[in-house]
Amino acid sequence: MYGGPGTGIGPALRKARQTRRKSIEEASRDTHIRIEYLHALEREAFGSLQGDVYVRGFLRSYSSYLGLNPDKVVSAYVQAMGGAVDDVPGPPPVKPLQRPALHKVLHRRGNWALAVSIAVIGLAAAGAGGLLTRGGPAPPPASPPVSGGAAAPSARTVTVKIHAKRPVYLRAVVDGQQVVSTTVRAGHTRDLEGAGLIRIQLADGRSAELTVNGQPLGSPGVRGHPYKASFQPQDFRRGASTPSPGG
Questions:
Q1: CATH superfamily assigned to domain 9-127
Q2: pTM for the full model?
Q3: Whether the predicted pLDDT of 237 surpasses 90
Q4: Nearest alpha carbon to residue 83 among 2, 148, 142, 159
Q5: What is the distance between the alpha carbons of residues 93 and 226, in angstroms, rounded to a whole number?
Q6: Greatest extent of the chain over all pairs of C-alpha atoms, in Å
């Protein structure tokens, strides 16, 4: 089912990690992906992982951590395996950065060195070219957590808590700008908070328990199928109507 070396993805991941001067152990701690899985990704030993869904999830988390474009990395993987890329989610809408500090980060001189390093290793093979899109330091894989002892969320914000019953890939877009792309390990919880809208996608339905604005929703979706939903500050609060998933 899975291809061997030659897609160009593995060398791209390894070169990006080395350029960022990260050891495989540091990358494992930062991404919460086991060391042997990272080795498998960099060696393109995709068949040794836990299946196609997990390969895509690991590729998204690891490439995002390294400053690569996760959508292009997954597309290159799917094409290399002989599949279609219609089911690969597109990138979220990009809004102009409003904070000068972040703008400067995205234009540091060191970014060009990273871009050149990635280009040199020949990512054109099997559609793997052009994986690098943002050159600044990659954002940490975790979004700012909400403390378990924090006060009840304000009605002016929307909060979503994802508690994984088994490992599951999570993609979330908070307020159309902040993007979370990671695999949540079994027994772990990811907390999200936004000002107006949170969109989530789980690679496998019924794989996690959701709590929205303090209201437990159980494990939604259908096992073996992706689950998508959108939540706003007024959802599931007293006197508010129940929203429809996938909005």
A1: lambda repressor-like DNA-binding domains (1.10.260.40)
A2: 0.38
A3: no
A4: 2
A5: 21
A6: 58
